[in-house]
Amino acid sequence: MFQKFNFDTEWAVKLISKITNDEDIPIEGDAIVKQLLALQINAEKYFFNIRKSLVEFDEVLEVQRKHVYDLRQLILTGDDESCSQHIFQYMQAVVDEIVFGNADPLKHPRYWSLSKLLKEFINIAGKLLDDSFAMISEEDLFQSLKQLHESNSVDVDNFHLPNLPKPPDGFRGIRRKNSSLKRWLAICSDDSTKNGRYRPTTNLLRKYLGDILIASYLNIVQESGYDDAYIKEIERAVLVKTLDCFWRDHLVNMNRLSSAVNVRSFGHRNPLEEYKIDGCRFFISMLSATRRLTVESLLHYWSSPMESRELFFS
């Protein structure tokens, strides 16, 4: 401990041995007192910096904690319409991630990973899609996008990709149509999409796939025959349980990260900055995984409600 705070231990031992060998006699002397005071000041600075570092690390996690707790509270206390909007936003976000991962607005659709895009989308919504959509090939989608890009106008209210199946009629009623329109406006104003020649085509593809997923979900829920109260109970249970599960795992990962970033200081990196960067990346990844698992769980539940009952209420 003395060496940690630059205390000259050899000098102190020699000086004390010259003064007295009797441990019961108090040691007095200005030189000793000054050394001990310097030691105390250095120790207090050291432990103050440790406490300050812990507070700064906790502030990073506090921002994430507030976001999750506010979201959780909104799900539990919000009305039925708010719960439905959460589900729709999750579904559109999952579709957006699939599109962003396989389509580049800066490139022609010929160079997009359309085969992978179709495969990922069908894996998410496969049980809800009819046979006509499941038979769509990469070439069919490419020709449709090409024709869409060359068209001069688009009817957003009844939009579907040319020569491809129309979304199910799930947006019946003014409220659901308004919700669909707001979702389209959110897509158009999304800053995460790259600016490019094919950005409008990318946005319309996002809307088309989002409409298919959401409308198919609304249809299968309606066909289940359950009352609205039970449906919202299931949706809230899935939303909260999935969020809680991933949040617990995230806290464990952040705790491990806080220990791991200290090693990076040997590479002349600021541990706090490294913690902020990786913590943000972990948090975004957690939210993405939460949305995807929530959507998959809801689609699986309503595809076979009786088989899934024990899964969500055990």
TrEMBL record:
UniProt xrefs under PANTHER family: PROTEIN TRANSLOCASE SUBUNIT SECA2, CHLOROPLASTIC, SECA INNER MEMBRANE COMPONENT OF SEC PROTEIN SECRETION SYSTEM
Coiled coil: none
Organism: Gossypium trilobum
Superkingdom, taxonomy of origin: Eukaryota
GO cellular component: chloroplast envelope; membrane
GO biological process, one term: protein targeting
GO MF, any single term: ATP binding
Gene3D superfamilies, per the entry: Helical scaffold and wing domains of SecA (1.10.3060.10)
Residue intervals of the SecA Wing/Scaffold domain: 26-301
Protein name (record): SecA Wing/Scaffold domain-containing protein
Entries under Pfam families matching the protein: SecA_SW (PF07516)
